[in-house]
Amino acid sequence: MDKRLVSLEVENFRSLRKIHLPLGDLTVLVGPNGAGKTNVLKVFEFLADIIRTDLEPALNARGGFDQIVFHGGEKPPSSIRINATATWTTHSSRNGPDEYELRITRTRRSTGDVLSRREAFQFKRPQGRGRRITISGQQATVVNTGATGGTEDSIGIKSFSSGLSTLPRLHGAGGEEVSAVADRLASFRVFDVAVPAARRPARISRHREYLEDDASNLASFMLMLRRTDPSSFEQLEEDARRALPQLDSIEFEYPANGSNEVVVVLHERGLRRPTPLVDASYGTVRLLGLLALLYDPDPPALTCIEEIDHGLHPQALEMLVERLRDASERSQFLIATHSPALADRLRPEEFVICERRDDGSSAIPAVSLADVRRIVQASDDLPLGELWFSGALGGDL
């Protein structure tokens, strides 16, 4: 996958006092509860909300600056910083990536606290040229540089609006490139199967069906997948049989109260009649929701999944990791887990250890990739989960 998020830097966002996280096609955050894994996912939720609603509403939805700024240390920090590098625009590369940085600063005054923001976009241009957009106060400054000189333009902007939400509406002056970044960030999703909702009948859409972030339209999405991409549906069904040995096939029924709704039913060996998903086990529903996600033909740029192993039998994890790698050719995945069984199936470059320091801040990664590889080699290639759980890769379990 050519276009991807390369790295994330965060300062003073919740427990993320200062982290630098390289991101591959599949990145799995491994650590105990409270280590900060969820807060990494919340950074992406925050950025996506800024694009959908703007900076002030996104902050207010989280209780304001005080609620999301790092709470450790002797005094509260005065700023929050988020920096993302990626290869999303036409001329970007790993050696010359796109870069976006947001800094939110709180200034204490006798009349009350004042919040301000500063943003910066850096884009690679053809033939060594570059474009940098800086947003501060009520002004966005666009600087184009090249071998023979450069140009500078200014654009008015509301004092606490974000360039991510404003500049894509403008023609020229970098709006097209900012739009490319914003479209990618806005598409990020945090996926979590809401089992009660996924069990229920789903309304059949006449338009292209997209899997909801909570899999609440699981039945209609799977029906759409069978109709539009039969080979992918067959592979999904085969994966489900691999994890659920009693399963024969996945079918669909239409409730008597209306043909515009559909339910998933499972045909299982030894049973006289099919099992509707409403009667299936918690783990079965979660597994089907995750498989539907991994066979999504039109995925977002990045999918985040928290505690992906929750409710799943360990025998399903091997297959799930294989499918994650396959799906990561179309979409990046950022996974959070504290399961040694899942970590056992990972490669060192997919594995990021998360720990909580005594000052309340998160160490992410707590062990460098080079050290992980060295420890694995010294242990005669023991599985990563076993090394982590034993303390060889860190002390916090």
From TrEMBL:
Q: Which InterPro entries match?
A: ATPase_AAA_core, P-loop_NTPase, RecF-like
The Gene Ontology terms for molecular function here are:
ATP binding; ATP hydrolysis activity
Q: Which residues form the ATPase AAA-type core domain?
A: 26-344
UniProt-listed Gene3D superfamilies: P-loop containing nucleotide triphosphate hydrolases
By what name is this protein known? Putative ATPase
Which organism is this protein's natural source?
Saccharothrix saharensis
